[in-house]
Design a protein that fits this description.
Elements lengths: L8 E8 L2 H12 L2 E4 L8 E5 L2 E8 L8 E7 L3 H10 L3 E9 L3 E7 L5 E7 L14 E8 L2 H12 L2 E7 L2 E8 L2 E8 L12 E7 L3 H10 L3 E9 L2 E7 L5 E7 L2
Parallel strand pairs: 1-4, 5-8, 9-12, 13-16
Antiparallel strand pairs: 1-5, 2-3, 3-4, 6-7, 7-8, 9-13, 10-11, 11-12, 14-15, 15-16
Length: 253
């Protein structure tokens, strides 16, 4: 069991056009079990792995909203994070509010338009298992404004940054609390459609990237980027049957 420190990704959830279909897809793909909440929480579903919360899912809230995964970063004070977002030229989409006794959250856009959220734990501490097959293992910002992202997230979360290279493309590792907490990928080259907006991409760990990608395809998903070897292992970009995108990563041994 792991509880994340402030500034680390501590929860991910899916807003989907077909909650029942998403439950079938992800429980089969990752071996999760689904715990569906009562009416007080609008049927919000918590996915469990080894008896611990690993991710969530719920229905779309607005017409035209796309199916998408959201990334939450741990906060010891969600209101203070919201203040830093505004001071750094980001946008507060949803001001901090209490989710009953579960915690306090807020939703934001960074200056390039990438959405992300903050979660201040209450009774619900966020995910409690990471870096094993079926669990969150990495969060990555894809953006065309690398310098702007470094300035913004450094101000909001106090991260420091160091350069790396992944498959020949510039890449930045974000460090916080003396460990690597996220990555920033500069969207350059033909692999990135011109109309693809800045976004956070989540990675779930798998034991075998090829097998997991084939399994996702057999379940009705789409392989957006086939299994590819990079310095840290083998990864693939997957789209679920409703259009929610995520990556899978089998770490190098």
């Amino acid at each position: 069991m792991t509880v994340r420190s402030p500034g680390e990704a501590n929860w991910v959830d899916l807003a989907t056009a077909d909650l029942d279909g998403a439950i079938r897809f992800y429980t089969t793909l990752f071996g999760w079990t689904a715990e569906v909440s009562g009416d007080d929480f609008g049927g919000y579903t918590t996915f469990m792995l080894r008896g611990l919360p690993v991710a969530g899912a719920g229905p779309l809230f607005g017409e035209g909203q796309p199916t998408a995964w959201s990334t939450y970063f741990a906060a010891d004070d969600a209101d203070r994070v919201a203040g830093r977002v505004e001071a750094a030229a980001g946008k507060v989409l949803v001001p901090p509010f209490d989710v009953m006794d579960q915690g306090r959250m807020s939703a934001f856009l960074d200056p390039a338009g990438a959405p992300f959220s903050a979660w201040e734990p209450g009774m619900m501490r966020g995910a409690e298992i990471f870096d094993v097959p079926g669990a969150l293992t990495w969060a990555e910002l894809n953006t065309r404004d690398l310098e702007g992202a470094i300035g913004f997230y450094g101000a909001v979360f106090g991260w420091t940054f160091r350069e790396a290279h992944v498959s020949g493309y510039p890449y930045v590792i974000c460090d916080g609390n003396r460990s690597s907490v996220a990555g920033i990928q500069l969207m350059v080259g033909g692999a990135w459609p011109d109309d693809l907006p800045a976004h956070w991409l989540i990675y779930f760990a798998v034991a075998d990237c090829d097998a997991a990608a084939e399994h996702a395809y057999a379940l009705g998903g789409r392989i957006v980027r086939p299994p590819t070897m990079i310095s840290v292992g083998c990864y693939a970009l997957i789209e679920d049957p409703q259009g929610g995108r995520f990556a899978i990563l089998a770490p190098a041994r």
